[in-house]
Amino acid sequence: xxxxxxxxxxxxxxxxxxxxxxxxxxxxxxxxxxxxxxxxxxxxxxxxxxxxxxxxxxxxxxxxxxxxxxxxxxxxxxxxxxxxxxxxxxxxxxxxxxxxxxxxxxxxxxxxxxxxxxxxxxxxxxxxxxxxxxxxxxxxxxxxxxxxxxxxxxxxxxxxxxxxxxxxxxxxxxxxxxxxxxxxxxxxxxxxxxxxxxxx
Length: 200
Known about the structure:
Glutaredoxin; 20% strand
């Protein structure tokens, strides 16, 4: 093997090692060092353009200045969505006066069915401080991408469902991710995380 060939192989090896190390750093930044729940805040969230349950345009700017809890789901969801919204209703009440210092936003992953009117009716079962949001399929796809939400349509016809992420995204008053609340997390754990968002 010539010296030139050896040098070429060393260069290729160095490039490959750089790619491997860089990928490892990116994965660590994305997933964090706490077992996968902690996500690098700069990768999650961002501006969006949707409409609320009253049909009025809303963007991220409408919710800045207060911590915001975002949850993604759909009105035909049989379990996770009504359970989470019931839990958020309870958590807001448990926070007492501090509950008014929070935004809670339910963003549909099913814009084809979840009209503003339907969302408004759906919210009647939960805390009146909760906002619902929908938009065009493209707008919903954009916000799903920005929040790194998993949402996959399952089935065809009128009876389709969605497999989707069930965590609540807690953002600080500037729109940065603070932490996640897992689905059906213990009540005190969830409230402690919400207080952490208030203090951030």
